[in-house]
Amino acid sequence: MANATNLVVRVYGLVINKSAQILLSDEYLFDRRMTKFPGGGLEYGEGPEDCIKREAFEELGQDIEIIKHFYTTGFFQRAQFFENHQLLSIYYRIRLRGEPRFRISERPFDFDEVNGSQSFRWASIDDLTELDLSFPVDRHVLKLLKIADRAEICS
Prior knowledge:
By secondary structure, the chain is α+β, with helices and mostly antiparallel strands.
């Protein structure tokens, strides 16, 4: 039986450059390919803002600045990797402190398919489709990004 303690909280960072391109993370986990926004799971004892700062440093190897909260899941979403768990996802617009210090790939899944592999790439928000992203909440966030004021999201 599921209960309120069966909650998985994930926090993601939306890094958007002046060309209206968003940073994507291509990953190979649980023996499958997935494309998502950078970020990960909230750990016990940390708040969402602490989480995205930690995740950005772990994944990107650099500090970030939080610009603003962008979206929190507003509908029921079952967690894909945990049976009888509900997913709550929180998205922040973030900015890298300085130029990217991580490798940016020109193609998706630019790595050997070993669990834990990850690569990053820029993708045009206008050219991305829902099918380019692996998870339902990320797909919803893409829809919101496509209707958002470009001047606001590209700042």
